[in-house]
């Protein structure tokens, strides 16, 4: 019976390890963690996010202006 208990214990450990691995690599869970970290970062200090958004807006407006006025 001791061998069976050891086998059962090892199976349970393996099941736990596989569940942990699945949690780490599951695409939805990974995405949820990334979004959560981004939200935490924004809530902690939104300044870099606002600066990045302003930079993207400048690039978009500049690209549109270049496309419109660059043809002349």
Automatic annotation (TrEMBL):
Q: What is the native source organism of this protein?
A: Agrococcus pavilionensis RW1
List UniProt keywords, sorted A-Z. Answer: Membrane, Transmembrane, Transmembrane helix
Pfam name, any one: DUF3618
Q: Which residues cross the membrane?
A: 49-69
* Designated name of the protein: DUF3618 domain-containing protein
* InterPro entries given in the database record: DUF3618 (IPR022062)
């Amino acid at each position: 019976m001791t061998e069976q208990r050891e086998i059962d214990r090892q199976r349970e450990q393996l099941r736990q390890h596989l569940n942990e691995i699945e949690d780490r690599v599951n695409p939805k869970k990974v995405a949820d963690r990334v979004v959560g970290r981004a939200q935490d970062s924004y809530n902690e200090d939104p300044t870099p996010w606002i600066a990045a958004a302003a930079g993207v807006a400048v690039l978009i407006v500049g690209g549109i202006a270049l496309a419109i006025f660059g043809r002349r």
